[in-house]
Specification:
This protein is mainly α and about 260 residues long. It has a single domain (about 5-200), classed as Four Helix Bundle (Hemerythrin (Met), subunit A). It has helices at about 5-45, 50-75, 80-105, 110-135, 150-160, 170-185, 205-220, 220-264, and strands spanning about 140-145, 190-195. The longest helix is centred in the N-terminal third of the chain and has 43 residues, at about 5-45.
């Protein structure tokens, strides 16, 4: 059956739109593939003894992970396939790669069984953290548990800051404690602020100033700034949890004091 020229013209008009839609859905996945490559490169660099390059790769993976999620939300191109691919990428780049990095870089001076246990615990806790995140609501105002990119990023920031591998047993055992603590934070119910819906807001000039200062600090004092940012975010959850506990107890104490005053 022959088609009319008008129908052919309509089909030709819809072709660019379909291609654009496909490009919109593929674009976030390209950043996710870059995330996987960074995790793979980090593992290879660790095996070859290039620990700084391995930590840099994890840092780049964090940036790519933030970009692909942001693009998917802005373009409304989130899919179940993209979500699963992103989770697999996060397990590689922020679970397995940091575990191998810290195992080779910082845990060689302790009992190998303890080192393997600590790093495997970090990996499995990160995987469970991702599984819990995938079944939760998408529009969460807070993260429940330390996000796995922050956990892996903290290890990468520590490696970048100290650079030289840990040779003393005391330092190695301290690193074991850090790995276990980060693993606990990931599976805990401690709340962490979500940066998904972060916008400039009304005080945009102050936000831009803060961003500019952070960029300048990262450019001029890369290692200490990244370590400070990683530790601040990782520690913000427990600090806020303790603050909330004392805040809840305070009204009860004040009420008891008020009752005693009325009785007198």
């Amino acid at each position: 059956m022959n088609t009319s020229p008008d129908m052919d013209e309509q089909k030709n008009r819809h072709l660019p739109r379909r291609r654009m839609r496909r490009s919109v859905f593929i674009l976030p996945s390209l950043f996710t593939v870059g995330n996987i490559f960074c995790g793979y490169y980090s593992i290879l660099s660790t095996i070859q003894g290039n620990y700084i390059y391995a930590s840099y790769a994890i840092g780049i993976a964090i940036i790519l992970d933030m970009i692909d999620g942001r693009i998917a939300r802005l373009m409304h191109s989130s899919t179940d396939f993209g979500l699963q691919l992103d989770s697999l990428a996060d397990v590689i780049s922020f679970g397995i790669a940091p575990s191998i990095l810290v195992l080779f870089w910082g845990l060689s001076a302790v009992d190998p069984r303890l080192a393997w246990t600590a790093t495997f615990t970090f990996t499995i806790c990160g995987a469970m953290r991702l599984a819990r995140f995938n079944i939760q609501a998408e529009e969460l105002k807070h993260f429940v548990g330390l996000p796995i990119p922050a956990g892996g990023g903290t290890i990468a920031a520590i490696v970048q800051f100290f650079a030289d591998p840990i040779a003393h047993p005391v330092g190695a055992y301290l690193m074991v404690a850090v790995v276990f603590f980060l693993a606990f934070l990931m599976i805990s119910k401690i709340r962490y602020s979500s940066l998904k819906h972060l916008t400039l807001g009304r005080k945009s000039h102050l936000s831009i100033l803060v961003i500019a200062l952070l960029v300048a600090l990262i450019f001029n004092y890369t290692r200490p700034t990244l370590l400070a940012l990683a530790l601040l975010y990782s520690g913000s959850g427990p600090v806020y949890r303790v603050y909330s506990m004392f805040r809840k107890k305070k009204p009860a104490n004040e009420l008891t004091l008020a009752d005693s005053v009325q009785r007198d």
